[in-house]
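ugh finaly. both done.
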Amino acid sequence: MQIAEVKMKIVIYIYNGITMLDAIGPYEVLKNIYGAEVVFVAESKGEISADSNFVSINAKYDISDIKEADVLLIPGSNIAFVREMKNKKVLNWIKEIDKTTKWTTSVCTGSLILAASGLLNGLEATSHWKPINLLRDYGAIPKRERIVEQGKYITSAGVSSGIDMALYLADKIAGETEAKVIQLRIEYDPNPIYNSGNYLNAEEEIIRIAEKKMEKDAKKDIGLMDLIKSGKTILKIKNSR
């Protein structure tokens, strides 16, 4: 069976403090769509550091270079998404690019950036399990699912779910055969040793420890603490099953 070439421009927005797998996981899938072009864009060109400050991605384009896209993908982060939610220049760019997209997507807390832009108003959306309820403050309807599709908007839950979302999107764009070929190429056949990767299944003690670790990591970014202390507090959101 011959796989048809798909001419498609896929834009992944990156920013300092991103969770690397949120961007690279989907990239590894989407770059394998035959004929697709995937580019990384940031507010300013150059090296973009991950939340670990250990690895980085080189953004060859800034947002002024990108006027349209077939697919826009917004990755999440541990806490840096808060800064992006307050960045009017970036939010306005997202809204303008969205006017040209066939699909506007997010991974993890990237959905909160989309929500802050107003694009998810009245729509169901998912996010990382910790801050998911913050979606309500920006007009979206939180839904604890791995992937949520609402028209052309596809949001995915935390970190690793971006790979699932990208395969789901690959199926939408190029069909089942191509999506299966990509899945095999990257040998994506998850078989975790524990059943604690879903908030609804995880033990209370595991959730408590995970929350403490994430809050400790978030507090390392001192520059964001004033934003977090404002009315919409991220770190102290109480989760509800």
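ok and the 2nd:
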Amino acid sequence: MKKQPEFEVAVVGFGPAGAIAACWLGQAGVKTLVLDKSRTIWNIPRAIALDHEILRVFQNIGIIEQVLPHTAPFGASEHYGVSGQLIRRIDVVPPPHPLGYLPNMVFTQPPVEAILRERAQAHASVTVSLGSELVSLSQEEGSVALRVQDEAGNTEVRTAAYVIACDGASSTARRLLGIPFDDLGFDEPWLVVDLVVHDAALIKLPPVCAQYCDPARPYTYIIGPGNHRRWEIMLSPGEDPRLMEHEESVWRLLARWVEPTDGRLWRASSYRFHALVAQTWRKGNVFLAGDAAHQQPPFIGQGMCQGVRDVTNLCWKLIAVLRDESSDKLLDTYGEERKLHVAILTERIKEIGAAICERDPEAARMRDEDLLARGGGKAPIVTRQEIVPPLQAGLICPESGPAAGTIFPQPGLANPHGPRLMDEVSGAGWRLFVDGRKNINESALEHCRIPQFILGGQGHCETDGVIAAWFDRHRCQAAIVRPDHYVYCTVFELGSLEEIVRGLQKRIGFGGFASSREASPELTPVPILNP
């Protein structure tokens, strides 16, 4: 008899993406091994921005209340042109907020990463092995063998049915698999500076985040939590990136805003901002995620968000396959969905970055004129959420309407003890959300295997009108929503549900629709059809 793998899933890398993967898997009781060559968390900020989709993930894995104290609102970003005039404003979505949280936040990475690790390690089914470096891997049917080396140079082989490689931009797993990057054509040298500013000096600094699109030297200025301020500074040809990290160079670059007595230098690190996407995201039973799969310029703060989307997308599918609720072919939709989504968003970020990085003064003036012309003589305004695309491929049903592939909202629901966010009540498995303001074909619902949740009418009452507006905008009566909150399809007549569900079952293999209530005993069951 063939020996079973020691673990169901091995996660290589215990950074934010790897830790969130371990949280999702551990929450579902999946036997998981996590490997990381480092024993400690870097005590410096790297990622600085989150959006509401990621905060919803933190809510779902049970850490949102711990994370929020380490965040602050990420306000509008104003872009200034050659002459110092406002040429574009990237704004925030006004309330009511569609996913239950402020759409954009800044955060302090080290404490949030510590919270993620602690949460992952709290799950009984998760084994974390720090100081363990992947040195080789091999695959045979149904199993991946990982040769791991400890800090003393000793090696051992661990086996898992599946592997998620979250081991960063210089991924060992990606190298071992021989997967190259597609270069999307962006490669620019920048210096990232983090400063903890003294209280008395804060008045010197701009009151909003800013992008100085100055051809002499482009700068980004970001207001972090508390007194944390970040500058991203484009380096010029001939400047040595390592020398520019030195304190005297940093303070010289910041002289237009602050001087050395105004704060404490937290870090100064030089980077090349890239736009890269792995050619394939799956090889056998090994999957790439996070920076191992893609890298993008940081201009709207989506780097870490992309990695969280990766593992959230992949983990619910792995859980379904491991629990015999779907066939292995479901896993092919991971790369199909995420690669295209990342490529589209990276191209959009790259376009913003190319405009910011323009070093030719005449071309920069033409850029400014073009942007102002697009705004009818004023600086155009766009929200960060408009830049992030929906899913456009994979396990969605686009013929059902434009809502397919978008994120289903999360309203507040009325409760005698105070409003509750919808996921706290519905869980995060497959769900059928029904507009309760309309006549409901109850016989159609009786034969639907997907857990049902009625909003409005005789169902749950929302507090802010987000769901009612969503149903009205899409002119539908219901929506089938995936475990990662993306809309599979809209439903215009409940009588068509049986046919739609049959089609979905065929696509995912077996058609299991276990909700997160079944997978996670931490969720308290509540009535689905009635408030």
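summary for the 2nd one i guess: Confidence is low (pLDDT under 50) at residues 517-531.
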